# Entry
Amino acid sequence: MARIKIDYDKCTGCRLCELICSLQHIENTFNPKRSRIGVFIEGDTFFPVIAGPYTDAECTAKTSVSIGGKEYDSCVLCRASCPAKPIFKEPDTGIPLKCDFCGQPPDPQCVKVCLSGALTFVE
Ligand code: SF4
Ligand code: SF4
# Structure
């Protein structure tokens, strides 16, 4: 299974990953609040956290909405069951955000801009 490995010791807190993620998903938008990766600070250590996969809560996919030409499920059960639920949601709609590896085939932009090597794509 594809995933992004995080090496916290290497993160410099530059937050380029947050910016490129929002730009990747919403045209002309550099906004960490719309990113699927967030960098948190505890003491002098930075903790990048990627949105999803969430818990095993059943996805009912009852409804969907379109944002920027993409369809999103808006039932939010996954977010309700996710310990990170206040973090990763569309600020305007509350729709949960989840890392999609920047498309298929995966092309993780956050990994590309992470010059410190804190993020590594592994399959
Ligand atoms: S781009 Fe890499 S080094 Fe910069 S904040 Fe993100 S994970 Fe950390
Ligand atoms: S792989 Fe893409 S969608 Fe996932 S956190 Fe990185 S930039 Fe965002």
Remarks:
- Residues 63 and 74 are 6 Å apart (CA to CA).
- The pocket of iron/sulfur cluster (ligand 2) is lined by residues 20-21, 24, 36-37, 50, 99-102, 108-110 (CB under 6 Å).
- The chain has a mean pLDDT of 81.
